[in-house]
Design goal:
This protein is an alpha+beta fold and 272 residues long. The protein folds into two domains: 147 residues, no CATH class; 118 residues, Jelly Rolls. The protein has five helices and 20 strands. Strands 11, 13, 14, 15, 16, 17, 18 and 19 form an eight-stranded antiparallel β-sheet that branches. A three-stranded antiparallel β-sheet has the order 2-1-12, covered by helices on one side. β3 and β4 form a beta hairpin. α2 packs antiparallel against α4. The longest helix has 20 residues. The chain is globular, with a radius of gyration of 18 Å. The N terminus is likely disordered.
Amino acid sequence: MDPTTRGRVILAIAASGLAASVWLVWPARHPAARVTVDGGAHVDASRIAANSKEHTARCRELEKSYRDAWESSAACTTDSDCVAETRGGPLTALDGCARFSNKLATHERADALAKQWLAEACAWALVANTDCGAPLVQCKDARCTEKPPPPLSSDWKRATLSGVVTLFMPADFTAVDTAAVDTYVRAFQGTKRSLTLELDPYADSGDAGRVQIIDGHAATVDATRVTFHERWTFGNVPDGHIVVRLECDTPAGCSDAAAIFGSIRVLLEPAR
């Protein structure tokens, strides 16, 4: 495979345990892209390809500053202290599906950093066409955070492949670095098991397994994998299937596969 004609996907895990940002790194000869940010300003994204390492470092610096600024906003003592703010479009790459804070907190510093993060094209390729749904809130370990929908345990947490697909996973999973050629992927490691969310143009449509409807989309589901039948185009990954895989060392490790797969929400519209 000629690397100059293929897009590479680099997953850059942010300092916080749950949130991560993904940059799609394009071949240098890819046409320039543009994104509309707050205020209607346009950013020429061609500089990202020519200066990707420096750009990634700058974006990670802005992310860390944003999370540090947000840290004091999330302190709580009871669930009633907490509110959720849905984050659609490119801000899903910064905050995930929503951000959670104390209802009395102010966010001027964090919001200024988020605007700067957008203006510097840190999420120029990551625009979700749909949001993640109405989030629930809870005060857990003295922090405002998302509450998984029942019947999921309150310690489950959200995993998102920014702009593509989201779901809830058990507390033992944590994000891990990964890289892939020609696909867009995010990976998580649990106790003797792993979970990956991927947009893969080379995946088959899932011939083995039962067909069921998940979040309004047909998918083939077996014990360890969900493959959506429709194809999506996102960033530099054309015409790919969304695939969610749960790999376990023992059958017991996959005992909650149905609950994980049942929480999937697709964030893209199918390619037409």
